[in-house]
Write a structure and sequence with these properties.
Number of strands: 12
Number of helices: 9
CATH topology of the largest domain: Elongation Factor Tu (Ef-tu), domain 3
Number of domains: 3
Largest sheet: 6 strands, antiparallel, barrel
Strand content: 15-25%
Helix content: 40-55%
CATH architecture of the largest domain: Beta Barrel
Order of helices and strands: HEEEEHHHHHHEEEEHEEHEE
CATH class of the largest domain: Mainly Beta
Structural class: alpha+beta
Shape: elongated
Distance between the termini: 31 Å
Radius of gyration: 47 Å
Strand order of the largest sheet: 1-8-11-10-9-12
Length: 373
Protein backbone atom coordinates (compact mmCIF):
# COMPACT_ATOMS: atom_id res chain seq x y z
CA UNK A 1 0.00 0.00 0.00
CA UNK A 2 2.85 2.36 0.82
CA UNK A 3 4.35 1.83 -2.60
CA UNK A 4 1.03 2.62 -4.24
CA UNK A 5 0.83 5.89 -2.30
CA UNK A 6 4.41 6.80 -3.15
CA UNK A 7 3.71 5.96 -6.76
CA UNK A 8 0.84 8.43 -6.81
CA UNK A 9 2.95 11.11 -5.18
CA UNK A 10 5.77 10.46 -7.62
CA UNK A 11 3.37 10.81 -10.54
CA UNK A 12 2.15 14.14 -9.23
CA UNK A 13 5.72 15.32 -8.72
CA UNK A 14 6.78 14.22 -12.18
CA UNK A 15 3.83 16.01 -13.75
CA UNK A 16 4.82 19.28 -12.04
CA UNK A 17 8.61 19.33 -12.09
CA UNK A 18 10.22 16.09 -13.25
CA UNK A 19 13.79 17.35 -13.70
CA UNK A 20 16.25 19.69 -12.08
CA UNK A 21 18.19 21.55 -14.74
CA UNK A 22 17.23 18.71 -17.08
CA UNK A 23 20.27 16.80 -15.77
CA UNK A 24 19.05 15.60 -12.38
CA UNK A 25 15.87 13.82 -11.30
CA UNK A 26 14.87 13.91 -7.62
CA UNK A 27 12.33 11.36 -6.40
CA UNK A 28 11.31 10.60 -2.79
CA UNK A 29 10.67 7.20 -1.22
CA UNK A 30 10.72 5.42 2.12
CA UNK A 31 13.72 3.39 3.29
CA UNK A 32 13.00 -0.28 3.98
CA UNK A 33 15.06 -2.87 5.79
CA UNK A 34 16.13 -6.15 4.15
CA UNK A 35 14.29 -8.95 5.96
CA UNK A 36 14.31 -12.75 5.82
CA UNK A 37 11.49 -14.95 7.07
CA UNK A 38 13.13 -17.90 8.84
CA UNK A 39 11.10 -21.02 9.56
CA UNK A 40 10.76 -24.77 9.19
CA UNK A 41 9.91 -26.83 6.10
CA UNK A 42 8.27 -29.57 8.18
CA UNK A 43 6.48 -27.83 11.06
CA UNK A 44 5.69 -29.37 14.43
CA UNK A 45 5.31 -28.35 18.09
CA UNK A 46 7.31 -25.43 19.48
CA UNK A 47 9.78 -26.58 22.14
CA UNK A 48 11.63 -23.36 23.08
CA UNK A 49 11.73 -19.72 22.02
CA UNK A 50 15.00 -17.93 22.78
CA UNK A 51 14.38 -14.34 21.63
CA UNK A 52 11.67 -11.70 21.59
CA UNK A 53 10.70 -9.09 19.05
CA UNK A 54 13.26 -6.26 18.96
CA UNK A 55 16.15 -8.40 20.24
CA UNK A 56 19.46 -8.22 18.33
CA UNK A 57 20.70 -11.57 17.06
CA UNK A 58 23.90 -12.87 15.51
CA UNK A 59 24.19 -15.11 12.49
CA UNK A 60 23.33 -18.79 13.24
CA UNK A 61 21.90 -17.93 16.67
CA UNK A 62 19.15 -20.42 17.58
CA UNK A 63 15.85 -18.55 17.50
CA UNK A 64 13.28 -21.33 17.97
CA UNK A 65 13.42 -25.11 18.40
CA UNK A 66 10.72 -27.67 17.63
CA UNK A 67 10.18 -30.94 19.47
CA UNK A 68 12.47 -33.45 17.78
CA UNK A 69 11.37 -36.85 19.18
CA UNK A 70 9.91 -38.08 15.89
CA UNK A 71 12.72 -36.58 13.82
CA UNK A 72 15.36 -38.32 15.98
CA UNK A 73 13.50 -41.64 15.73
CA UNK A 74 13.34 -41.34 11.95
CA UNK A 75 17.03 -40.47 11.89
CA UNK A 76 17.94 -43.54 13.96
CA UNK A 77 15.79 -45.74 11.72
CA UNK A 78 17.46 -44.36 8.59
CA UNK A 79 20.93 -44.98 10.04
CA UNK A 80 20.01 -48.57 10.91
CA UNK A 81 18.67 -49.23 7.42
CA UNK A 82 21.81 -47.80 5.86
CA UNK A 83 24.00 -50.01 8.05
CA UNK A 84 21.95 -53.05 7.05
CA UNK A 85 22.09 -52.22 3.34
CA UNK A 86 25.84 -51.51 3.48
CA UNK A 87 26.48 -54.81 5.28
CA UNK A 88 24.43 -56.71 2.71
CA UNK A 89 26.38 -55.10 -0.14
CA UNK A 90 29.70 -55.96 1.51
CA UNK A 91 28.57 -59.55 2.03
CA UNK A 92 27.57 -59.94 -1.63
CA UNK A 93 30.76 -58.33 -2.93
CA UNK A 94 33.03 -60.51 -0.76
CA UNK A 95 31.21 -63.72 -1.70
CA UNK A 96 30.48 -66.77 0.49
CA UNK A 97 32.76 -67.85 3.31
CA UNK A 98 34.55 -71.22 3.28
CA UNK A 99 32.33 -72.39 6.13
CA UNK A 100 29.19 -71.66 4.14
CA UNK A 101 30.44 -73.69 1.18
CA UNK A 102 31.29 -76.62 3.46
CA UNK A 103 27.86 -76.48 5.05
CA UNK A 104 26.23 -76.47 1.60
CA UNK A 105 28.36 -79.48 0.56
CA UNK A 106 27.30 -81.39 3.67
CA UNK A 107 23.65 -80.54 3.06
CA UNK A 108 23.90 -81.80 -0.53
CA UNK A 109 25.47 -85.04 0.65
CA UNK A 110 22.63 -85.63 3.13
CA UNK A 111 20.00 -84.97 0.46
CA UNK A 112 21.73 -87.37 -1.96
CA UNK A 113 21.67 -90.11 0.69
CA UNK A 114 18.00 -89.50 1.32
CA UNK A 115 17.33 -89.73 -2.40
CA UNK A 116 19.23 -93.02 -2.76
CA UNK A 117 17.34 -94.49 0.19
CA UNK A 118 14.04 -93.45 -1.38
CA UNK A 119 14.99 -95.22 -4.64
CA UNK A 120 16.17 -98.41 -2.94
CA UNK A 121 13.30 -98.75 -0.48
CA UNK A 122 13.56 -100.14 3.06
CA UNK A 123 16.58 -102.14 4.15
CA UNK A 124 16.19 -105.54 5.93
CA UNK A 125 17.25 -103.98 9.20
CA UNK A 126 14.41 -101.42 8.94
CA UNK A 127 11.86 -104.18 8.21
CA UNK A 128 13.06 -106.26 11.20
CA UNK A 129 12.94 -103.18 13.43
CA UNK A 130 9.38 -102.36 12.33
CA UNK A 131 8.28 -105.99 12.93
CA UNK A 132 9.82 -105.89 16.40
CA UNK A 133 7.81 -102.75 17.19
CA UNK A 134 4.62 -104.54 16.05
CA UNK A 135 5.34 -107.54 18.29
CA UNK A 136 6.08 -105.28 21.27
CA UNK A 137 2.87 -103.34 20.71
CA UNK A 138 0.90 -106.60 20.42
CA UNK A 139 2.32 -107.84 23.71
CA UNK A 140 1.35 -104.57 25.43
CA UNK A 141 -2.13 -104.85 23.93
CA UNK A 142 -2.49 -108.44 25.21
CA UNK A 143 -1.43 -107.43 28.71
CA UNK A 144 -3.88 -104.51 28.67
CA UNK A 145 -6.68 -106.79 27.44
CA UNK A 146 -6.03 -109.31 30.22
CA UNK A 147 -6.00 -106.54 32.81
CA UNK A 148 -9.27 -105.15 31.44
CA UNK A 149 -11.00 -108.58 31.57
CA UNK A 150 -9.88 -108.99 35.18
CA UNK A 151 -11.18 -105.53 36.09
CA UNK A 152 -14.45 -106.34 34.35
CA UNK A 153 -14.96 -109.53 36.44
CA UNK A 154 -14.12 -107.78 39.67
CA UNK A 155 -16.51 -104.95 38.77
CA UNK A 156 -19.32 -107.45 38.30
CA UNK A 157 -18.51 -108.84 41.75
CA UNK A 158 -18.50 -105.34 43.19
CA UNK A 159 -14.88 -105.56 44.30
CA UNK A 160 -13.34 -102.69 42.22
CA UNK A 161 -14.56 -99.15 41.71
CA UNK A 162 -15.79 -97.64 38.47
CA UNK A 163 -12.66 -95.49 38.38
CA UNK A 164 -10.32 -98.50 38.30
CA UNK A 165 -12.49 -100.11 35.62
CA UNK A 166 -12.29 -96.95 33.47
CA UNK A 167 -8.52 -96.82 33.78
CA UNK A 168 -8.19 -100.40 32.60
CA UNK A 169 -10.48 -99.70 29.66
CA UNK A 170 -8.52 -96.60 28.63
CA UNK A 171 -5.23 -98.50 28.89
CA UNK A 172 -6.58 -101.18 26.57
CA UNK A 173 -7.75 -98.56 24.03
CA UNK A 174 -4.32 -96.88 24.05
CA UNK A 175 -2.52 -100.20 23.56
CA UNK A 176 -4.75 -101.07 20.61
CA UNK A 177 -4.04 -97.67 19.03
CA UNK A 178 -0.26 -98.18 19.40
CA UNK A 179 -0.54 -101.65 17.86
CA UNK A 180 -2.43 -100.23 14.88
CA UNK A 181 0.19 -97.50 14.32
CA UNK A 182 3.02 -100.06 14.46
CA UNK A 183 1.22 -102.31 11.94
CA UNK A 184 0.63 -99.38 9.58
CA UNK A 185 4.30 -98.41 9.71
CA UNK A 186 5.32 -102.01 9.08
CA UNK A 187 2.96 -102.28 6.10
CA UNK A 188 4.28 -98.99 4.68
CA UNK A 189 7.87 -100.25 4.85
CA UNK A 190 6.91 -103.51 3.17
CA UNK A 191 5.11 -101.64 0.37
CA UNK A 192 8.22 -99.54 -0.37
CA UNK A 193 8.66 -95.79 -1.02
CA UNK A 194 5.89 -94.05 -2.94
CA UNK A 195 6.64 -92.24 -6.19
CA UNK A 196 5.78 -88.84 -4.73
CA UNK A 197 8.23 -89.38 -1.87
CA UNK A 198 10.95 -90.23 -4.37
CA UNK A 199 10.12 -87.05 -6.31
CA UNK A 200 10.28 -84.97 -3.14
CA UNK A 201 13.67 -86.43 -2.22
CA UNK A 202 14.96 -85.72 -5.72
CA UNK A 203 13.71 -82.12 -5.59
CA UNK A 204 15.41 -81.57 -2.22
CA UNK A 205 18.66 -83.00 -3.65
CA UNK A 206 18.48 -80.73 -6.71
CA UNK A 207 17.77 -77.67 -4.53
CA UNK A 208 20.78 -78.39 -2.32
CA UNK A 209 22.93 -78.77 -5.45
CA UNK A 210 21.71 -75.44 -6.80
CA UNK A 211 22.53 -73.69 -3.51
CA UNK A 212 26.04 -75.10 -3.53
CA UNK A 213 26.57 -74.09 -7.17
CA UNK A 214 25.37 -70.55 -6.45
CA UNK A 215 27.80 -70.24 -3.54
CA UNK A 216 30.71 -71.49 -5.62
CA UNK A 217 29.86 -69.20 -8.57
CA UNK A 218 29.40 -66.06 -6.43
CA UNK A 219 26.97 -63.17 -6.78
CA UNK A 220 25.83 -62.08 -10.23
CA UNK A 221 26.49 -58.56 -11.46
CA UNK A 222 22.79 -57.72 -11.32
CA UNK A 223 22.63 -58.88 -7.69
CA UNK A 224 25.56 -56.64 -6.80
CA UNK A 225 23.98 -53.73 -8.68
CA UNK A 226 20.68 -54.29 -6.86
CA UNK A 227 22.42 -54.34 -3.46
CA UNK A 228 24.35 -51.19 -4.36
CA UNK A 229 21.12 -49.45 -5.37
CA UNK A 230 19.54 -50.39 -2.05
CA UNK A 231 22.59 -48.96 -0.26
CA UNK A 232 22.32 -45.72 -2.26
CA UNK A 233 18.60 -45.51 -1.50
CA UNK A 234 19.30 -45.92 2.21
CA UNK A 235 21.93 -43.16 2.02
CA UNK A 236 19.41 -40.84 0.39
CA UNK A 237 16.84 -41.66 3.06
CA UNK A 238 19.41 -40.85 5.73
CA UNK A 239 20.20 -37.48 4.14
CA UNK A 240 16.49 -36.70 4.06
CA UNK A 241 16.11 -37.67 7.72
CA UNK A 242 19.12 -35.50 8.61
CA UNK A 243 17.61 -32.58 6.70
CA UNK A 244 14.31 -32.99 8.56
CA UNK A 245 16.17 -33.11 11.87
CA UNK A 246 17.92 -29.84 11.01
CA UNK A 247 14.53 -28.27 10.36
CA UNK A 248 13.77 -28.69 14.08
CA UNK A 249 16.20 -25.83 14.82
CA UNK A 250 15.48 -22.38 13.36
CA UNK A 251 18.53 -20.11 13.21
CA UNK A 252 19.15 -16.48 12.36
CA UNK A 253 20.25 -16.11 8.71
CA UNK A 254 22.49 -13.13 9.47
CA UNK A 255 23.32 -10.50 12.09
CA UNK A 256 20.23 -8.41 12.60
CA UNK A 257 17.17 -7.77 14.72
CA UNK A 258 14.08 -9.88 15.41
CA UNK A 259 11.31 -7.95 13.73
CA UNK A 260 8.43 -10.40 14.11
CA UNK A 261 8.07 -13.49 16.34
CA UNK A 262 4.64 -14.61 17.51
CA UNK A 263 4.96 -18.21 18.76
CA UNK A 264 5.13 -19.75 22.22
CA UNK A 265 6.30 -23.14 23.56
CA UNK A 266 3.60 -25.73 22.93
CA UNK A 267 2.19 -24.06 19.81
CA UNK A 268 1.57 -26.31 16.83
CA UNK A 269 2.90 -24.69 13.67
CA UNK A 270 2.59 -25.56 10.01
CA UNK A 271 5.57 -25.65 7.64
CA UNK A 272 6.54 -22.10 6.79
CA UNK A 273 8.09 -18.92 8.20
CA UNK A 274 8.00 -18.29 11.95
CA UNK A 275 10.48 -15.47 12.59
CA UNK A 276 11.29 -12.36 10.58
CA UNK A 277 14.85 -11.09 10.98
CA UNK A 278 15.84 -7.69 9.62
CA UNK A 279 19.37 -6.54 8.80
CA UNK A 280 19.62 -2.89 9.95
CA UNK A 281 22.74 -2.34 7.85
CA UNK A 282 21.23 -3.52 4.56
CA UNK A 283 18.60 -1.06 3.40
CA UNK A 284 16.55 -0.55 0.26
CA UNK A 285 14.72 2.41 -1.21
CA UNK A 286 11.90 2.10 -3.75
CA UNK A 287 11.23 5.13 -5.97
CA UNK A 288 9.21 5.58 -9.15
CA UNK A 289 10.31 7.40 -12.31
CA UNK A 290 8.56 8.15 -15.57
CA UNK A 291 9.14 6.38 -18.86
CA UNK A 292 10.60 9.61 -20.26
CA UNK A 293 13.76 9.30 -18.13
CA UNK A 294 13.92 5.53 -17.78
CA UNK A 295 16.42 5.20 -20.61
CA UNK A 296 18.96 7.34 -18.72
CA UNK A 297 18.93 5.19 -15.59
CA UNK A 298 20.86 1.90 -15.46
CA UNK A 299 21.41 -0.94 -13.01
CA UNK A 300 24.57 -0.38 -10.95
CA UNK A 301 24.40 3.40 -11.28
CA UNK A 302 25.39 5.33 -8.14
CA UNK A 303 22.73 7.70 -6.82
CA UNK A 304 23.04 10.57 -4.32
CA UNK A 305 20.55 10.48 -1.43
CA UNK A 306 19.40 13.09 1.07
CA UNK A 307 16.99 12.82 4.01
CA UNK A 308 14.85 15.24 5.97
CA UNK A 309 16.50 13.99 9.16
CA UNK A 310 20.05 14.95 8.13
CA UNK A 311 19.54 18.18 6.14
CA UNK A 312 21.93 18.61 3.22
CA UNK A 313 24.15 15.67 4.15
CA UNK A 314 24.49 13.37 1.18
CA UNK A 315 24.57 9.57 1.15
CA UNK A 316 25.22 7.12 -1.66
CA UNK A 317 23.04 4.37 -3.03
CA UNK A 318 23.17 2.08 -6.05
CA UNK A 319 20.49 1.07 -8.54
CA UNK A 320 19.73 -2.57 -7.83
CA UNK A 321 16.66 -3.22 -9.96
CA UNK A 322 14.50 -1.51 -12.60
CA UNK A 323 10.97 -2.79 -13.15
CA UNK A 324 10.24 -4.07 -16.64
CA UNK A 325 6.58 -3.02 -16.52
CA UNK A 326 4.99 0.31 -15.72
CA UNK A 327 2.31 0.80 -13.08
CA UNK A 328 -0.85 2.92 -12.57
CA UNK A 329 -1.15 3.83 -16.26
CA UNK A 330 -3.58 2.96 -19.08
CA UNK A 331 -2.68 -0.12 -21.13
CA UNK A 332 -2.82 1.78 -24.45
CA UNK A 333 -0.65 4.85 -24.24
CA UNK A 334 -1.49 6.73 -27.42
CA UNK A 335 -0.18 10.22 -26.72
CA UNK A 336 3.14 11.55 -25.49
CA UNK A 337 1.42 13.07 -22.45
CA UNK A 338 0.08 9.65 -21.46
CA UNK A 339 3.48 8.00 -21.92
CA UNK A 340 5.04 10.58 -19.62
CA UNK A 341 2.61 9.52 -16.89
CA UNK A 342 3.75 5.86 -17.02
CA UNK A 343 5.79 5.12 -13.86
CA UNK A 344 8.43 2.41 -13.36
CA UNK A 345 9.72 1.17 -10.02
CA UNK A 346 13.42 1.48 -9.27
CA UNK A 347 15.00 -0.22 -6.26
CA UNK A 348 18.14 1.25 -4.70
CA UNK A 349 20.53 -0.55 -2.36
CA UNK A 350 22.20 1.41 0.45
CA UNK A 351 23.79 0.84 3.84
CA UNK A 352 22.96 2.38 7.18
CA UNK A 353 25.92 4.82 7.13
CA UNK A 354 26.90 3.76 10.64
CA UNK A 355 23.32 3.91 11.84
CA UNK A 356 22.40 7.32 10.42
CA UNK A 357 19.93 5.77 7.98
CA UNK A 358 17.14 3.56 9.27
CA UNK A 359 14.12 1.76 7.95
CA UNK A 360 11.07 4.02 7.88
CA UNK A 361 12.94 7.22 7.02
CA UNK A 362 11.91 9.21 3.96
CA UNK A 363 14.79 9.78 1.55
CA UNK A 364 15.14 11.59 -1.76
CA UNK A 365 17.12 10.01 -4.56
CA UNK A 366 18.89 12.39 -6.96
CA UNK A 367 19.51 10.64 -10.31
CA UNK A 368 22.23 11.99 -12.60
CA UNK A 369 20.63 11.89 -16.07
CA UNK A 370 23.74 12.96 -17.97
CA UNK A 371 25.01 9.38 -18.17
CA UNK A 372 28.21 10.28 -16.28
CA UNK A 373 27.13 8.93 -12.83
Amino acid sequence: MYRFIMLGLAAALMAGCPHRNHDTLSVAGQIEGVSVDAGSKVGGRIAEVFFEEGDPVERDAVLVTLEDHEAEAQLAMARARLAQAAAQLTKIERGPRTEEIRQAEAALQRQEEQYRMALQGARPQEIDSALARVNAARAQRDDAAAEFRRAERLREQGVVSEQMYDRAQHALEAAEAQLKAARDQYDLILDGTRAEEVAMAQAARDEAAAVLEALRTGAREEDIASARAMRDEAEAALRMAEANAREMVIKAPFNGMVESLDVRPGDLVQPGPLVRVTDPDRLELWVYVSAAVLGRIRVGQEVTLTTDSHGDREFTGRVLFIASEGEFTPRNLQTQEQRVQQMFGVKLALDSADGLLRAGMTATAHFDLTGEG
